[in-house]
């Protein structure tokens, strides 16, 4: 937000402040944090939410290019709501562009973005607030989470993030029941979760529920997760991927 990395808490964006992290002395420096994630923690992919762009301002493409130069793959939400906007994010350094429910005009638009940019470059974010979908004003998509995921899959999406803003920065854990329901309905998609991870136990629970990966920030900033915890989570993920490949 405004060129700074902020500590997101429960989706109350007006209260977000530059993050102070155990990973770097530079409060709110997004490039320093990206280096710490990549070089210090071995993170191969970083999630970037351009909150200004999501709320209607111009995307911060210059900063995105600097983050891309650090070396991690970037999973980026710039509030893209059209194929050209998704293409601009990819051209600026995103490896995959996130299309969020919060800024999505229609699932026809999502299908057009997937058709233009490829299903391997587009991720749908199921944006929630305390379990309820967060939709664009005037959007007709006022249904539950599962039908929305179904619509995204029909639009050609192969990867979905379940992102509950009310859980972000809380450390209360993720919605395991919803994850298990989505996994049963769509066994072949990549399923990620964001909001609530506070410990290695939370990561293990998310994996057991069927999530393939988790967005983690607060637990890294406050030291709740360290390199040893992440190494265990990665080994568990590799074993689960091997098991899924055998079952397929």
Question: Top keywords for this entry?
Answer:
248 residues, alpha/beta, TIM Barrel, eight-stranded mixed sheet, two-stranded antiparallel sheet, 10 strands
Summarize the structure.
This protein has 10 helices and 10 strands. It is of the alpha/beta class and 248 residues long.
Walk me through this protein's architecture.
The chain has a single domain (6-247), classed as Aldolase class I (TIM Barrel). It is 40% helix and 17% strand. It has helices at residues 30-40, 51-54, 61-68, 83-91, 107-117, 145-154, 176-185, 200-209, 218-221, 227-247; strands at 6-7, 17-18, 45-49, 73-77, 96-100, 122-129, 132-133, 159-164, 190-194, 213-215. The strands form two sheets. Strands 3, 4, 5, 6, 7, 8, 9 and 10 form an eight-stranded mixed beta sheet that branches. A two-stranded antiparallel sheet has the order 1-2. The termini are far apart.
């Amino acid at each position: 937000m405004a060129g700074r990395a902020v500590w997101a808490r429960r989706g109350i964006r007006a209260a977000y402040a530059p993050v102070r992290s155990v990973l770097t002395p530079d409060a709110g420096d997004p490039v320093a944090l990206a280096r710490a994630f990549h070089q210090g923690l071995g993170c191969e992919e970083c999630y970037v939410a351009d909150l200004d762009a999501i709320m209607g301002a111009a995307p911060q493409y210059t900063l995105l290019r600097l983050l891309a130069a650090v070396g991690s793959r970037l999973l980026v939400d710039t509030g893209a709501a059209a194929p050209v906007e998704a293409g601009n994010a990819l051209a600026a350094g995103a490896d995959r562009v996130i299309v969020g429910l919060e800024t999505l005009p229609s699932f026809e638009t999502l299908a057009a973005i997937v058709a233009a940019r490829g299903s391997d470059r587009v991720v749908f974010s199921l944006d929630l607030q305390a379990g309820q979908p967060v939709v664009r004003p005037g959007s007709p998509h006022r249904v539950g989470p599962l039908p929305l995921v179904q619509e995204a899959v029909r639009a050609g999406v192969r990867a979905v993030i379940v992102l509950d803003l009310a859980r972000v920065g809380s450390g209360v854990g993720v919605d395991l029941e919803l994850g298990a329901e989505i996994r049963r309905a769509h066994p072949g998609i990549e399923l990620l979760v964001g909001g609530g991870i506070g410990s290695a136990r939370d990561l293990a629970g998310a994996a057991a529920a069927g999530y393939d990966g988790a967005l983690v920030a607060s637990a890294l900033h406050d030291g709740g997760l360290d390199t040893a915890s992440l190494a265990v989570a990665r080994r568990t993920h590799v074993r689960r991927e091997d098991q899924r490949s055998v079952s397929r």
